[in-house]
Amino acid sequence: MTSLSVEPAPRAAHLPPVGTLRLGLARGALELKQFFREKDYVVFTFSLPAVLLVLLGSIFGQEIGDTGVTKGQLLAAGMIGAGVISTSFTTLGVGICLDREDGTLKRLRGTPMPPAAYFIGKFILVAVCSVAEVVLILAVGTLMFGLDLPSTPGKWWTFAWVFALGLAACTLLGIAVSGLPGSARSAPAVINMPFLALQFVSGVFITPITVLPTLMVTVASVFPVKWICQGFRSVFLPDELAAWEPAGTWELGRTALVLGAWCAVGLALCLLTFRWTGRRR
Predict the structure, then answer these.
(1) C-alpha 213, offset from chain centre
(2) Among 7, 108, 148, 212, which is 20 to 30 Å from 248 by CA?
(3) Which of 75, 55, 86 is closest to 146 using CA atoms?
(4) Is 168 helix (H, G, I), strand (E, B) or coil?
(5) What's the whole-model pTM score?
(6) Which conformational region is residue 163 in: left (phi greater than 0), alpha (psi within -120 to 50 degrees), or beta?
(7) Which InterPro entries match (predicted)?
(8) Burial class of residue 48 (count of CB atoms within 10 Å of its CB; 0-12, 13-18, 19+)
């Protein structure tokens, strides 16, 4: 009698890139569905940067010197960067903490799904949310404060690479920082605190950044928040406003180098610190 031998199914870790990408896209669709199902969280996530822009832009709306640019417009350009960071770094850091605590990560780790598919799904989530946030802040900035959209292909190209590098860096850092909170309950406070502090010292809320103490600007220059917001200011503001930056120029080359370096740092931190399960107590 001939015996039938059944070969074991191939492990998901050895799936070809196309298969992993297909699973990642499916995971991304699920992440988006789950995210937009929580309507109160969606409203808060998207509205907070826009509400801050409306309030601060209305309070500090006077013209800056003889530039013809108001502080509201200066604030709006920086808030675009803050919105991208909020929907990537903060949303991802808190979301992964929740996935870890409720057992989602542990269950996914026990399935044939490749780990890369989970992270592809998360990246799709933050990319869609970041695009939506940028559109919302641009709408508020143009309608309420007269912010001008870029008028040249070069400006749009700068917008594209600042957005892409900033999103990649903050996504990786959001994944890395998700391991810091001891629980999902403490995650919003732990993750929002450094982001909020960096917004103040990076010239997001207090404009122009040159009015801040030199030490604060030096500290801010180490982190990506300042460079993302400065990059977006170079896109939406006249070139004359570069004189109000600490170096007197937009420093786009340095912006690309710093954001690229933070992508590398974020990736290294993810590989070294990411945990699929919670800490043992």
Answers:
(1) 26
(2) 148
(3) 75
(4) helix
(5) 0.89
(6) alpha
(7) ABC2_TM, ABC2_TM_bact-type, ABC_2_transport, Nod_factor_ABC_transporter
(8) middle
